[in-house]
Design goal:
Layout (H helix, E strand, L loop, with lengths): L1 E5 L4 H10 L5 E6 L12 E4 L5 H11 L3 E4 L6 H6 L1 H22 L2 E7 L21 H14 L4 E7 L2 E2 L10 H10 L4 E4 L3 E2 L2 E2 H13 L4 E4 L6 E2 H12 L6 E4 L13 E2 L4 H7 L6 H14 L1
Parallel strand pairs: 1-2, 1-4, 2-3, 4-5, 5-6, 6-11, 7-10, 8-13, 9-14
Antiparallel strand pairs: 9-12
Helix pairs in contact: 1-7, 2-4, 4-5, 6-8
The structure holds NADP nicotinamide-adenine-dinucleotide phosphate.
Length: 299
C-alpha cells in the first residue's frame, strides 16, 4: 500500500507521517516548499503545490498512491477574507485536481474539512445537519465538500474542530502551544469567553484518518474532541495543568477582537458515527495535555 500526504509540513500532516511510520507502508510526504519534518528515512519527500494541476497529476501519476490524505489548506480564517482568490485556489479548486487524479489512479481521497461550514446555532452537529458557513474560509471548504459529493472517486471527508498538538517548525502555532508559551513567559493575555469549541488532539485526528483508510470507509465523518469548552476554559485548563498564574488571563468578548471573519459561536460534533465506524476514541483534554507535556520534555 502506498500512502500520500499533502501538507505534510503542517500539524496534522506531521502527525500522520509519524503514525504511518509504525506500518509497513510506502509513504510519500508532500508539501509546498522544503521538507520540515523529522528523519526522512521512513518516507519519500516530494515538494508539491496542490494548486498546480499539472504538478498534482505528475506526482500522483508518478507514485500512484492507494490513499491520499489531503491536509493542505489555507487555514488562516481572517486571511481568507482578504485573499479570496488564493483561498479558492487552495481550499476548493485543488480538491478538484486531487479528486480527478484520485479517480484516474483508483486512489481513496481522504479530505479534511471544518466545523466552520456550520453557523454554530445548534448543539452537537451530526453529519446530516445542513451547513451554513459564516466566513469565506467556511464557504471555500464547503464548496470543496460539494465537489466531492458529486465526484466518482472514492472519497471521505473528515470534519474537525480546532486542532492542537506539538509539531516541528510549524508555520503557525495552536491554542495549547500558544497559551502555554504566553503564560510561561508571564505575558498578560486576553481570551474570549463567548465562543465555544470541542478542540481536537492532532494525534486523535491522525488516527481517525488512518482508520478511515484501513477500513475503507467512505462518506462524511465528524471527528473532534469530546469536550465543549469556551476558549477561556481551554486556556484556563492549560493554566491549571501547568500551575501558571491565572490572573494573567483576562476575559473578553469576541466582538472586542474585531476579527475580519465571522465565526460560529459554538461548535461541537455528535461523534457516534466516527466512534462506531472508525473506532474513533478521542482522549480527554487533560489526557492530551499530559501527552503534550511528555512530548515537549522529550523534544
Ligand atoms: N487548524 C485547525 O484548527 C483546523 C480546524 C478545522 C479544520 N482544519 C482543517 O484541517 C486540515 C489540517 O489543518 P492543519 O492545522 O494541520 O493545517 P496547517 O498546520 O496550516 O498545515 C497545512 C499545510 O499545508 C501546506 N500548504 C500550504 N499551501 C500549500 C499548497 N499550495 N500546496 C501544498 N501544501 C500547502 C502548509 O505549508 P506551510 O507550513 O509551508 O505553510 C502547511 O504545512 C486543513 O484542511 C484545515 O482546513 C483545521
Amino acid at each position: 500500500m502506498i500512502y500520500l500526504i499533502t501538507g505534510s509540513n503542517g500539524l496534522l500532516g506531521q502527525k500522520l507521517l509519524k503514525k504511518l511510520k509504525d506500518f509497513n507502508f510506502e509513504v510519500i510526504a508532500t508539501s509546498k516548499g522544503k521538507n520540515r519534518n523529522f528523519d526522512s528515512e521512513s518516507y519519500t519527500y516530494e515538494s508539491l503545490d496542490i494548486t498546480d494541476k499539472d504538478e498534482v497529476n505528475r506526482v500522483l501519476n508518478l507514485y500512484k498512491p492507494n490513499v491520499i490524505f489531503n491536509t493542505a489548506a489555507m487555514t488562516n480564517v481572517d486571511l481568507c477574507e482578504d485573499e479570496m482568490d488564493n483561498c479558492d485556489k487552495l481550499n476548493t479548486f485543488s480538491v478538484a485536481y486531487l479528486a480527478d487524479a484520485a479517480l484516474s489512479i483508483d486512489a481513496h481521497l481522504i479530505h479534511i474539512s471544518t466545523d466552520f461550514i456550520f453557523d454554530g446555532k445548534k448543539d452537537l452537529y451530526s453529519e446530516e445537519d445542513p451547513p451554513n458557513p459564516l466566513s469565506y474560509y467556511g464557504k471555500s471548504k464547503l464548496e470543496a465538500e460539494k465537489l466531492l459529493y458529486n465526484h466518482n472517486c472514492n472519497w471521505s471527508i473528515l470534519r474537525t474542530i480546532v486542532i492542537y498538538g506539538v509539531g516541528k517548525k510549524l508555520n503557525k502555532s495552536n491554542i495549547v502551544l500558544w497559551a502555554k508559551d504566553q503564560l510561561e513567559n508571564h505575558n498578560q493575555i486576553k481570551i474570549i469567553d463567548d465562543e465555544f469549541r470541542a478542540p481536537t488532539f492532532a494525534e486523535d485526528l491522525a488516527q481517525a484518518c488512518i482508520n478511515t483508510a484501513l477500513k475503507k470507509e467512505y462518506g462524511i465523518f465528524h471527528v473532534s474532541g469530546k469536550e465543549l469548552m469556551s476558549i477561556y476554559e481551554i486556556v484556563e485548563s492549560i493554566a491549571n495543568f501547568y500551575n501558571f498564574d491565572k490572573s494573567l488571563i483576562k476575559r473578553i468578548k469576541s466582538k472586542e477582537l474585531n476579527q475580519k471573519a465571522k465565526r460560529p459561536k459554538k461548535t461541537s460534533f455528535n461523534l457516534l458515527k466516527a466512534k462506531n465506524t472508525l473506532d474513533y476514541s478521542p482522549k480527554s483534554f487533560l489526557e492530551s495535555l499530559e501527552i503534550i507535556h511528555k512530548q515537549l520534555k522529550n523534544n
